[in-house]
Description:
The structure is a single chain. The longest helix has 16 residues, at 178-193. A six-stranded mixed sheet has the order 6-7-8-3-9-10, with helices on both faces. The mean pLDDT is 91. The chain has a single domain (35-60, 75-238), classed as P-loop containing nucleotide triphosphate hydrolases (Rossmann fold). The protein starts with a strand and ends with a helix. It has seven helices and ten strands. By secondary structure, the protein is α/β, with parallel strands linked by helices. Helices cover 35% and strands 29% of the residues.
Amino acid sequence: MTEAMARLTGIRRYYTMGENVVKALDGIDLEIRRGEYLAILGRSGSGKSTLLNILGCLDRPTDGTYVLDGQDVSVLDDDELSRVRSRKIGFIFQSFNLIPQLTVLENIEVPLFYQGVPPRQAREKAAELAEKVGLGRRFDHKPTELSGGQQQRVAIARALVNDPALLLADEATGNLDSATEKEILDLTDELHDLGMTVILVTHNRALTTRAERVLVLADGKVDSLKTREELDREKEVAR
C-alpha cells in the first residue's frame, strides 16, 4: 500500500463575519498518497482556495488534524508553518509572483536564500532547474523580457528548488493561451512521472483529465472523490 503524503481528518475552517459564521470547510477527510496526482475541482465559493491554503500551510484549520509527510502541522505556530512551507511545499500560482527586478536565476534562487544555502550552491541548483524547464538560454533575462509561458516555467523551477514533498498548482495555467497551457501541463506530468506528489487546484474540469483522482468540492464539503478509471467509465456510459 502506498504511503500517505498528506492526511486530513475532520478538517473544518470557519470564519466569523459579524454575527454570521461562514463554514468555508465543513468536515473534510482526505488522504493523498505519496507520488499521486490529485485534481481539486470546484466553483467559486466551494472551499477549494481554503483547502489549498491549509494543504500549503498558509492557514490552520479551526478543527481537525492535518498530517503532512508524517508531521502533524495543524498544531504548529506561524513560524513553524513557515519553516514547513519553505522545506516541504512548492507553489505555482496563476499570477507567477516573480520579482520583476531579478533575473531568471535570481528568481529561482529566492527560496534558497531564505534557507541560508551558500550562493554558489544556490546558483548551481537554479541553473540546473532552469535548464530542466527549458530556460537554458534565458538565465539573465528578467520577467518582463519573457513570455507568459516562460514566466510560468521560472515559477515552476522556483517551486522545485527546495526539493518539495508536495507541489501545489493553483489555477497555474489561467493566464496562458491553450498551446502554452498544454506545455505547462505536460511539464507537470513529467514531474509527476518522476515521483512528485502533485495537487492541481482548478475550476476548469477539462484540466483534470491528467489527474489520477479528482476531488470535487461543494459548499465546503466533499461532493465526490473518484479515480480516473471511474470517471472514464462514467463518460463511456453517458455516450
